[in-house]
Amino acid sequence: MTTPIHPAGLDGSGAMFDAIAERYDLLNRLMSFGKDRSWRRQTASQLGAPKRALDLATGTGDLAIEVARRNPLAQVVGLDPSTRMLDVGRGKTKKLGLGTQIEYVQGDAQSLPFPDRSFDAITMAFGIRNVPNRPAALCEMARVARPGAKIALLELTEPSGSGLSVVARLHVHWIVPAMGAIISGSREYAYLSRSIAAFPAPDAFVQIARDSGLELVKLVSFSFGACHLFVFTPRAEGSS
Ligand SMILES: C[S@@+](CC[C@H](N)C(=O)[O-])C[C@H]1O[C@@H](n2cnc3c(N)ncnc32)[C@H](O)[C@@H]1O
Fold first, then answer.
1. Is the CB of 142 under 6 A from ligand 1?
2. pLDDT for 25-43, tens place per residue?
3. pTM tops 0.85, yes or no
4. Beta strand pairing status for 227-234 and 145-156?
5. How many angstroms separate the CA atoms of 222 and 181, rounded?
6. In a mutational test of the pocket of ligand 1, which residue from 62, 76, 90, 126 has the highest number of ligand atoms less than 8 Å from its CB?
7. Rounded-to-integer distance, Cα 64 and Cα 57, Å
8. What residue segments make up the domains of the chain, in order of their start?
9. Does the pLDDT of residue 9 top 80, yes or no?
10. CATH architecture under which domain 14-156+200-234 falls
11. Rounded CA separation 135/115 (Å)
12. 63 close to 21: Cβ distance less than 8 angstroms
């Protein structure tokens, strides 16, 4: 697979995540003070009762696992370009006895290997920020979602404003890269801070999603704007 260039000159490709796959879950817990779990739970709770769900940028599978646990009758597909992240996810899924419910597929959110209208829920946690051509990925979500499907995207955003959001900005831009470098021994976590700064503000992202065929159903802000949950549904045919 060729890796397209990120518009902000950043590298959020699967290859980068291959390098940190084994330490990814631990770093996630530490850097978010354990909040990433409750954010994923709230994301999975938006979906109704899907029979077939797709988790994009599934990484080590935490959100796919959450969706499967909440919906024991659902078949869940987790997609990601990073083989090593997927390997960690497969191992965890097998240990939890969810191997028949969750299937992992290597792929790119910008060009999904699924037919039109094939999922009744789509999720993506901390993934859309890494995708170079975000409108292409959002159009693909609109294409593979069934009418009325919920598309729940969780993403880290630049905390804005004064007061505690200043502390949140300090955490994202100074503490996270330093902790990441120390614990993972790699510089990949400097990318996290740069990619958050380069991600559009929530309102601008909602407009990009609208232009890509999605309607906003709900927008929730967590931790002083450090993270947002966007819930969309595909625009009904005939409406503009
Ligand atoms: C920060 S991790 C998020 C993993 C997981 N969703 C979670 O909640 O922890 C970002 C993931 O995005 C994946 N990714 C990067 N580019 C992608 C693309 N074009 N399409 C789909 N996933 C992509 C990476 O391989 C990585 O696993």
1. no
2. 888 887 777 789 999 999 9
3. yes
4. antiparallel
5. 25
6. 126
7. 10
8. 14-156+200-234
9. no
10. 3-Layer(aba) Sandwich (3.40)
11. 19
12. no
